[in-house]
Structure formats: C-alpha cells, structure tokens
Amino acid sequence: MPFLVRGIKRRKWDRQSVYPWLEKDEIPADPLTDLPTSDNALSVYIVEDDKSNLDRVITALAATRERPDKYDYLLFDERALSIANVKTELTRGNTPDDLVNSWHLDLVELSGSKLLALVTEILRSDYRTARWLESVVKDKLQRGMKAGHVDPGKMPPKLRDAVLSL
Amino acid sequence: MIGSTLPEDTNLDNFAPTGEGQWWWRKRTPASVLSTAQADTAEPRSALGDELLPVRGCRGALVYSTVLQEPYNPTSLAGLSREWAQPGLRLISLDDVPAATTCREEFSLPSSSTAMQIPPIDVTRLVEVAFSAAHYEVFRDGEESEFSRELVHLVRRYGSSALDAIDGLINFGEVDGEIGSVALRTIGRVEHPASYTVRLRLLERALAHNSSWIRDGAALGLASLGDPTAIGSLQRAIVQEPIEELRQDLKAVEEYLETLR
User: Fold this and answer.
1) Which residues of B touch A66 (CB under 8 A)?
2) Which residues of B touch A19 (CB under 8 A)?
3) Element (H or E) spanning B259, and its range?
4) Residue B115's closest CA among B174, B70, B74?
C-alpha cells in the first residue's frame, strides 16, 4: 500500500506531547490546524511502498518555497483515506519537478467531520514525521537541479539564486 | 555632490549645508558623502538605504536646514528621524547654529529655537510590539514573515538592547511557542557580527526552555549560526529531551555542527 506525504510543522505532530486535559479518544487540535484546506481540498503526493521516490518528492516540494529553509513532512499510509471515507482526485501537482507532479493527489470534498476522521486515523496509525535541515534542503536541491529533475526556471527566483550560489 | 568622495583633509566632524533644502549625513563607514536628499523628500531611509547615523562628534545633534521647517511639523520631523534617532538626539535648525561652529563645540540655542528633543527610544517596547503583532501572522517555513523582518531590523539597529528584550520575553517571560521559535530562528540567521556572542548565548539558554517549540527554534537558530562551540549545549539538551522526535531534531543539528568543525 503506498504512502502519502505532505509538508507540515513537525512540532504539531509530536507523539509524546502530553496533554493531561485531553479526554479519552480525543485528539489534540494542533494537527488539524496543520492541514489547512483550500476549496475543501487537501494536496498530498504519492510515495511508493518502498519509499524509493520519497527523496525526490520532498526535494520537489522544498523547491516551491521562497527561500531555503528546513522542510518538515508527514508520511502516512494511504489506508487512512478509505477508513475516513475520503474521496480523491488525481490532478497534476505544481512543483518544478514534472515527474513528481504526476504523483500528486487531491483529497476532495472534505467536510469538517471527514477531515477530523482523517487526522484521527493518521494519529492512530503508524505515521511518521521527519525533517530535512536547511543544509540538507540546499544539498538536495542542488543535486535535483544537476540531475535535471528540478527545473530551475520553475523555482522561485530567490530560492534558485540561493542554491546556485552554493 | 551625491556619491562624491570627500577630500583627504576634510574634517568629518565639521559639516555644512550644500544648499538650501538639503540635509546630509554619512553612513557608518566614513570618508564619503554618500548622498543628500531634498527637503521635500519624506523618505530619507529609502533614498539612502540602511545604517544611517547622525554625523558623529556632534553631541547627538542632527542639524537640518531651515527649509525643512516647512511644510513639516514636529511630528513629521520626529518621524523622519526615527530610523536614525538615538536616545536624546536633538534636531536643531541650522539657523540656530552659530556660524563656524564645529561639532565639538557647545553652543547656546536662542529662545526661538525649534530644537526638539527626541524621546528616548524604548527598545523593549518596540520588541514587545513586534511580538504582539506576530500573533496575527501565519508563519510558513521558507517564507519571510513581517515579524522576522522586524526583528532583523531591531537587532541590526539596536543590537544587544533588542536582544536583551527578546531574551527577557523568551527565556524569562511568557511567549507563544511558535512565535518564540520563529524569533530564535531569526536570531540565528541575522547577519550582525557585533551581537554574535549575545545571540549565541541566548540561543543556548533557550535549549532548556519548557516549551518544545522554543527548544526546537533554539536548535534551528544554532544550526543557522553554524558554530560548533554550541555542540556541548546541544548534547546536554539531547540527554534531557523527553520528546523523541525533538531529540532526533536536536541530534540532527548536533551532527550538522560536527561537520563544520
């Protein structure tokens, strides 16, 4: 079963954050606020079972930012979508990597309760968060550009110039 | 003349108007007149860029041409001087300065003088205002925020005074975790050699904060600073870190700083 990945703020998903006020079967609000929808849809990218394309996806996502910075991401099992009854649409992504854009998925027709169900399911599952430091992001972007995966012409100019000047 | 270099023997402590409707100042690096501006220009900062200072050696007085009195009111003048005001700076009309006065001399102001006392700058208040305004911002990684831009300006302008105020808010006061994190990441990134040590110490102290966001921001700030001397502080923080994911993030910064040794 493939995975799905999305940029997040890692601190909002720490498993060991203890909230003594949280009642049984409740989830904290922070993860919900870290998945802002647009037109009731959420953008994710498909990652292979063996995670062989994960690096390339994260590089492409990092290449959409205005300037070099750390990149935090959330990786979760696609199964969470069916459990939460979330509808999907395969649409092209908008990163500077054309191949990665073909791995884009929109989670659509998201009601408040479906979003809550999805986040609840993610938090109950074996989800994973990780971080690339800024130094790693710069390195990956440079490699991505050299390999011809990331099109410099489609990167934000400040980011492109910062990477090219390395 | 705009952009001209002053002759070698120019006494930079003296100054004179180049004509009516103009004022002048020099940047931190001496020995050249970088620009002048017309009296009706309300944005000297944009005309001349950053790091504008009153001419040194003039005992905190910035002399302006009398033409500036019109159409500006004192509030406008105070506003014009905000970017380069030092506490206690006085704006004095050139008309009030006796002829041939050098900056090193005292002079008496006539009773009709338009001299204004610029109130002391409350840097702590400026920092508090910036933190307060940050509550209305949405922060996104990889994007510059108004808050971080303002902090960079305050640190560059007021140095350790601004950092003391930031330190007070973060390490000894109440601050929202994410706002504190953004502040610390900004402190690590700002290019300001004079405050380097103060910033390093502030970041190291914040590694022991009770907010995971602030501990995280401190580590990221240290990563930006790129100073391997912070490794010891990070190692102590790693040992004490109860949150597994954050412990991983602290280790990643430690490993990165090790590569810089």
Assistant:
1) 142-144
2) none
3) helix B244-259
4) B74
Q: Which residues in chain B have Cβ-Cβ distances shorter than 8 Å to A72?
A: 141
Residues B221, B226, B232, B234, CA torsion sign: positive
Asked whether this complex has an ipTM greater than 0.90, the answer is yes
B67 CB within 8 Å of a chain A CB: no
Which of B243 and B75 is assigned the larger pLDDT? B243
Hey, is the C-beta of B181 within 8 angstroms of any chain A C-beta? yes
Q: Token digits for B62? A: 């910035």
pLDDT digits (tens, 9 = 90+) for B87-105: 444 445 445 555 544 443 4
* A28 contacts chain B (CB < 8 A): no
Give me the torsion for CA of B133, A67, A156, A6, rounded to 10°: -90
Interface test with A, best of B249, B254, B257 (most A CBs within 10 A): B249
**Euclidean distance between CA atoms A56 and A47, whole angstroms:** 10
Neighbouring residues of A120: CB distance < 8 A, sequence distance ≥ 6:
A27, A84
Measure CB to CB from residue A129 to each of B181, B213, B245 and give the nearest one: B245
- Quickly count: other Cβ atoms within 10 Å of residue B180's Cβ: 27
**Pairwise CA distance, residues B144 & B52, whole Å:** 24
H or E element at residue A106:
strand A104-108
Query: Which residue carries 């009153």 as its tokens?
Result: B54
Q: Which tokens sit at B64?
A: 């302006």
Distance (Å, rounded) from C-alpha B184 to C-alpha B131?
Answer: 12
Residues 6 or more apart in contact with residue A79 via CB below 8 angstroms? A1, A125
**Residue B54 — left, alpha, or beta (φ > 0 → left; ψ -120 to 50 → alpha)?**
beta
Rounded distance, CA B220 to CA B237, Å?
Answer: 13
pLDDT at B30 over 60: no
C-alpha A42/C-alpha A164 separation (Å) is 32
Q: What end-to-end distance do the CA atoms of chain A give, in Å?
A: 38
Residue type, A41: A
Which residues are paired to B53 by β-bridges? B26
Angle at B246 between CA A123 and CA B133, to 5 degrees: 90
A149 and A121 Cβ atoms separated by less than 8 Å = no
Say which DSSP state B55 is in: P
Residue B242 contacts A, CB cutoff 8 Å? yes
